[in-house]
Amino acid sequence: MGNTSDTVRVNVTLDISGETLKTIVRNAKEIVGRNEKGHYRIDTADLLEDLLSSFIDENGFDAYVGNRENYGFLNRH
Question: Which residues partner with 7 through β-bridges?
Fold first, then answer.
């Protein structure tokens, strides 16, 4: 995400499908596995945050928000 000193942390609510969430949990469990007590040692909320941050960074979110055509939904309010 570029220079981290230039970033601001925002908390947002967004909709994702249940299937997407199931995929994230399943993949995380398969990758991380269980600890010695049989528990999974990953916070899926933190994982989702990391996945979304990576996606935003890798897919040019700055360019996306810079394009005024992407704000067309504002005219519907």
Answer: none
| Residue ranges per structural domain of the chain | 16-76
Burial class (CB in 10 A: 0-12, 13-18, 19+), 47: middle
CA distances from 20 to 7, 15, 16, 32 (A): 27, 10, 7, 18
* pLDDT, tens only, 37-49: 999 989 999 999 9
Taking residue 45's Cβ as centre, other Cβ atoms within 10 Å add up to 8
Residue 39 is encoded by which pair of tokens? 């528990």
Q: What is the value of pTM for the model shown? A: 0.77
Please give the DSSP secondary-structure letter assigned to residue 33: -
d(Cα 7, Cα 2) in Å, to the nearest integer? 8
